[in-house]
Amino acid sequence: MELTATILDLDLDIFGIAVEDVGKTVELIKAKGGKVTREPGPVKGGSTVIAFIEDPDGYKFELLERGPTPEPLCQVMLRVGDLDRSINFYEKAFGMELLRKRDNPNYKYTIAMMGYGPEDKNAVLELTYNYGVTEYDKGNAYAQIAIGTDDVYRTAEAVKFFGGKVTREPGPLPGISTKITACLDPDGWKTVFVDNIDFLKELE
């Protein structure tokens, strides 16, 4: 089963965007009337300069200071209740790789970066475990993450085999014939897998 790292649809609370100068970007956002909820500074327990902003609908963006990158949309963060369980699921069911894992006991959280290629060239999932928190209220704003796949039928089989819940059996969407399947991870986060060839046809 071959999956790609195309993230097609992002409707959730926090995702990261890489910029070369977080301070300058924040000043521009302020000048345009944007809301800054965390001023630029190093991440807790690390050295990467970050800031948090919100769009007019209240969606949170994390700005991360990095050098030039071909993919500015760099990460999507999901909070999970059991990090090892989630790592295993995304490795086995989604075919992702654990790119790095970091524990920060001073601030009581552990993160795991999951993806289909290096962080500096691909969008990745940041799985965040906060000590002692096993469940989250997901609200009603989050929709889904979409990932391209070469075979939605085999993808659905893999998701089921490794403990995920398929919420839409694989097959074409009415009206446009693009084949998809939808599933939930062990924490209830929804992902839609889209047939790569069908999706490219939609762009024609």
Automatic annotation (TrEMBL):
GO biological process: methylglyoxal catabolic process to D-lactate via S-lactoyl-glutathione
The keyword Metal-binding belongs to this UniProt entry's keyword annotation: yes
A single GO molecular function term of this UniProt record: metal ion binding
Gene3D superfamilies xref list: 2,3-Dihydroxybiphenyl 1,2-Dioxygenase, domain 1
GO cellular component: cytoplasm
Keywords: Lyase, Metal-binding, Repeat
EC number: 4.4.1.5
Residues in VOC domain copies: 1-66, 72-196
InterPro entries registered for this protein in UniProt: Glyas_Bleomycin-R_OHBP_Dase (IPR029068), Glyas_Fos-R_dOase_dom (IPR004360), Glyoxalase_1_CS (IPR018146), VOC_core (IPR037523)
Transmembrane segments: none
Reaction catalysed by this enzyme: (R)-S-lactoylglutathione = methylglyoxal + glutathione
Keyword check for Metal-binding: yes
Function: Catalyzes the conversion of hemimercaptal, formed from methylglyoxal and glutathione, to S-lactoylglutathione.
Similarity comment: family membership: Belongs to the glyoxalase I family.
Protein name: lactoylglutathione lyase
Organism: Salix purpurea
Lineage of producing organism: Eukaryota, Viridiplantae, Streptophyta, Embryophyta, Tracheophyta
